């Protein structure tokens, strides 16, 4: 059959409390790790029996199907895990339809489902990368705001110290005939220059630390 080659599971169920399987293709049974006969012997074709150790998943499935039925929808769509007899859990996209048929007065449901384990893994990786990108963009924005304040404050400090040095230089030139006063101005210029250099070096260190860079002395 074409649908077997496409790796789609197909199953027909009673809409009862067990979601009893009336029929399913080989691929559907294969997802559980059991053959058709093995599944019947072990679980009597009852889906709730299969999920006995995972009642939370069965309750979720039941609520999705029953909610769709109450709202008179044509069908339902949800994702659910299947734990095979051996191996890792497989995630399925479950697409069901209320057929309008009945069997001994019980409504019938048709299911078509397929493995989306790799899709979920890729989606999770994409979500993680998206979150990482968002955090990085937020960090860049914070860095941008910090840098704006940083440059503004540094500019004010450098401008003030440059004015002091410039003023002292003018005084020193005018005091060439007064050696003591000239020497005092030159010493003050030296001190202020060192303060300026220290300020710039400190600012550079702070900037590189904020940017996550290695500071070189």
From TrEMBL:
Transmembrane segments: none
Signal peptide residue numbers: none
Coiled coil: 116-143
Source organism per UniProt: Hungatella hathewayi
The name this protein goes by in its record: PAS domain S-box protein
Keyword Coiled coil attached: yes
Record keyword Coiled coil present: yes
Alphabetically ordered keywords of this record: Coiled coil
Domain of life from the UniProt record: Bacteria
NCBIfam families membership: sensory_box
